[in-house]
Design a protein that fits this description.
The protein is α/β, with parallel strands linked by helices. It contains seven helices and six strands; from the N terminus they run H-E-E-H-E-H-H-E-H-E-E-H-H. The chain has a six-stranded mixed sheet with strand order 1-2-4-3-5-6. 25% of the residues are buried.
């Protein structure tokens, strides 16, 4: 069976545009603008914004759940886009980062200062109502004065 050249060309175009769309700095369907680690850390310093790094993997069920539930919440995506530089780090593709930050479980939400210093990290699935508290905690620099738990209690 001979495959027409036109079909091969269409398949090539599909994969080309798919790979361009999934490149660093893309906004996914829920509106979060994701960057690669290097680009995100540099942009955080340049723009004076804290950096949120989400360590994930395709095989991780709770990572997928967090992407589908937490990150699709409009208040979460809006707060992230306005106040943070968001980085999507694939556990299987970013072995250097996994080693550097001693990542042992997924999903992992990791926050960094504008200069790249570690602020806070939380393992596991985080529902949107708890995640938005964490975002506010980091953005308002309340971590300098109290624990996340005290902040969530409003104390």
């Amino acid at each position: 069976m001979k495959i027409p050249k036109k079909s091969i060309g269409l398949v090539f175009l599909f994969f080309f545009f798919s790979s361009v769309w999934i490149s660093p700095g893309f906004a996914d369907s829920d509106g979060i603008k994701w960057y690669s680690y290097d680009e995100g850390m540099a942009l955080g310093e340049k723009e004076g914004k804290k950096v949120f790094v989400f360590f994930t993997a395709e095989w991780c069920a709770y990572c997928t759940k967090m992407k589908k539930e937490t990150f699709t919440d409009p208040s979460v995506s809006a707060y992230l886009n306005e106040n943070f530089i968001s980085v999507l780090a694939d556990y299987d593709m970013e072995s250097t980062l996994v080693t550097k930050y001693n990542i042992r479980g997924l999903p992992l939400s990791y926050f960094f200062s504008e200069s790249g210093d570690s602020i806070i990290q939380r393992p596991g699935y985080i529902p949107s109502e708890k995640f938005i508290h964490m975002l506010r905690f980091v953005h308002t620099e309340s971590y300098k004065k109290m624990s996340l738990e005290k902040f969530a209690e409003g104390k």
